[in-house]
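We include this case.
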Amino acid sequence: MPVDFEIRDQVACVTINRPDRMNAVDAETEDRLEEIWLEIEGNADLRCAVLTGAGDRAFSAGADMKSSNAASGLEYWGHARPNGFGGISLRDSLNIPVIARVNGFAMGGGFEMVLGSDIVIAVETAKFALPESRVGRLPLDGGMVLLPRLIPQKIAMGYLLTGRRMSASEAADLGLVNEVVSAEDLDDAVERTVADIKACAPLSVKAIKHTVKKTAQLHPRDAQALRTPALVAALQSKDSDEGVQAFLEKRDPVWSGT
């Protein structure tokens, strides 16, 4: 299979498994990723997801040009998927955090998947780029719309218009990467973040992600006034009372997810 998928201790582990192609995504891989995200969405017990690439060279080199080079730019655009590259770069229906475990190059669509993730942990040697303009194409699956919203527009345009590579440290300085670690520490860093998420109330985490996604483009006053079902569910939950009670009793909370 081009993608490995397993669930471990309420964590969805998604690994693009095409290391011989630097985990580039072809049509079969894209289809499988979409299936996996739909399965994750339907599993209410999951706390978070970790997305990565197999091997130690690449997170993902983006679209597999060898499998799609017969399609024109317009044909590719015409078949673009609403959830963006890998089914995740533009996805707004997933309510658990997605951690991008960036173990190497994240190019084109690979970078778009990183931009669509909630938390990014990268090795020191990771490289990021949207090099589509260098091959006469465009970052159509989220790159053009996400990057200028996440970093200053002038900086984003510099990378978009030149296709230049961004180092892990540069990405961290721009706020695109949460943590830069050595290859030896990558898994431990991911596990620490997973543990911190699982230490929080499940409905609170889901409500926070949902609210941030829904209010990103709203005026702060309008965003503050928004009352979504996710917010109401979290505030009325048993866990909301359990968290306060555990704090008062100086013990760890026992979350029920209800």
Summary: The longest helix spans residues 27-41. The chain is about 40% helix and 15% strand.
